[in-house]
Amino acid sequence: MGTRPFHPWFALPVILALPVLISAQSEPHPQMLVVNGQAGKTSVVQVNGRSYVDVEALAQIANGTVAFKDNQITLIVPASASGSGTAGQPSSPGFSKEFLSAAIESIAAVREWRIGIATAIQNSISVTDSWVSGFQRQANDSLRQASVAAVTATDRAALQLLTNENSYMRKWSDQIIAARKNLQYMSPEDVGNDPLFQQVLACSHSLAAIVANGQFQDEPACALSTH
Q1: Closest among 3, 141, 9, 112 to 68, alpha carbons compared
Q2: Which of 219, 132, 143 is nearest to 175 (CA)?
Q3: Shortest CA distance to 173 belongs to which of 104, 112, 91?
Q4: How far apart are CA 169 and CA 124, in angstroms?
Q5: Strands (DSSP E) along 112-226, which ranges?
Q6: First and final CA of the chain: distance in angstroms?
Q7: Which tens digits make up the pLDDT trace of 200-209?
Q8: Residue 224 near residue 164, CB atoms below 8 Å
Q9: Residue at which a domain ends, from 19, 52, 82
Q10: What are phi and psi of 6, to 5 degrees?
């Protein structure tokens, strides 16, 4: 996980319609923030007429998760946080916070692996076992963390899709390395038209949508096949 910014503030445009009551001010001031019926105290500041809150505090109040990777912040608020369930009835366990966070890391690691190889081909850089090993190790470590964090049935179902994605990525990576060893030229256009590359890309996009929505659904793009 990347280094966290010192002041991760999250803008709250008016269109979000969050019931935040603040007075005109420029310095952080404790206020009550309500997100989909979940209330908690956090600091709110106003800059040029816009309201900002600490993104980690926002995630905690909403029973969500936040992950920091390089210059990207990913905030996930599970649908179960909306409080739409029937009073007195337990909600579906769904995803655990720890698994969602680990899943984000796993998806990001595979994405970096995929982009790294595609960029190397575009710039005529040799893709070798030793060069790829760092990407593969990071992806495998992230997948192991997701496996450890999977505690609910929904977690485990999504873990299988993450595992399939990792498997697809490894096959495509091995395919690129083999082509290089055989002195086979591969252009960026060849990469874009490669069915296995398209499978990796489609599965990655599907998994990103799952964690963003906080709701599991079986994704054909991540199903194992015989490529």
Answers
A1: 3
A2: 132
A3: 112
A4: 20
A5: none
A6: 32
A7: 999 999 999 9
A8: yes
A9: 82
A10: -70, -35
Residue 203 belongs to what H/E stretch?
A: helix 195-213
Q: Which residues are 46's β-sheet partners? A: 51
Total domains in the chain come to: 2
Of how many residues is the chain composed? 227
Residue with tokens 């252009």: 187
**Do 50 and 25 sit in the same domain of this protein?**
yes
Can you tell me the distance from the alpha carbon of 65 to that of 206, in angstroms, rounded to the nearest whole number?
19
Task: Look at the alpha carbons of 21, 25, 26, 28 in this order and tell me if their dihedral is positive or negative.
Answer: negative
| Listed residue (115, 131, 109) closest to 197, CA to CA | 115
How far is Cα 212 from Cα 195, in angstroms, rounded to an integer? Answer: 26
Pick from 42, 58, 82: which residue ends a domain?
Answer: 82
Using an 8 Å Cβ cutoff, are 162 and 143 in contact?
A: yes
Domain that holds residue 173: 97-222
On whether the CB atoms of residues 68 and 5 are closer than 8 A, the answer is yes
Same domain assignment for residues 49 and 123? no
- Contact residues for 101 (Cβ-Cβ < 8 A; gap 6+): 65, 67, 149
> How high is the pLDDT of residue 34?
58
Best mean pLDDT range from 3-7, 67-71, 178-182: 178-182
